[in-house]
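In the design runs reported in the main text, the only information available to the sequence generator was the tokenized backbone. The following block is the verbatim input for one such run; it is reproduced so that readers can re-run the procedure and compare outputs position by position.
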């Protein structure tokens, strides 16, 4: 299984993204408006399709607030982004999960602060290099 962190890799912040604006939209229960502060990375989607066509499993992970789960799931379906499931977690919880579960071959994250958090299964790629996900050997 390949785990891919949605924000930063598949969902990249727009020019209008600001953490205060994002939090304010969540407080006002405008979940769709909050998620519109992220664009979909076409390179990442293309790489996910390549992985999917190779019969490898893709799990999308998000570190966004859990109340965005339904809204994000709808967006993924609407945009046709291939994935087996959508998992909401935290970076530290994912680090433990990756260490425990042998079936997780790799977790791809664009956040350089998470580079060492996942251990040898972690792969930090900038969003502009998302096509490299398709070359991961599992």
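Verbatim output:
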């Amino acid at each position: 299984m390949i785990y891919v962190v949605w924000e930063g890799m598949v969902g990249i912040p727009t020019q209008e993204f600001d953490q205060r604006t994002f939090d304010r939209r969540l407080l006002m229960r405008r979940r769709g408006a909050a998620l519109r502060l992220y664009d979909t990375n076409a390179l990442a989607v293309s790489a996910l399709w390549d992985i999917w066509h190779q019969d490898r499993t893709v799990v999308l992970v998000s570190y966004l607030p859990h109340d965005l789960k339904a809204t994000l799931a709808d967006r993924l379906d609407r945009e046709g982004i291939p994935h087996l499931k959508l998992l909401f977690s935290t970076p530290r919880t994912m680090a433990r999960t990756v260490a425990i579960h042998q079936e997780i071959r790799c977790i791809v994250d664009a956040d350089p602060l998470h580079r060492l958090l996942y251990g040898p299964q972690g792969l930090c790629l900038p969003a502009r290099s998302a096509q490299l996900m398709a070359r991961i050997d599992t």
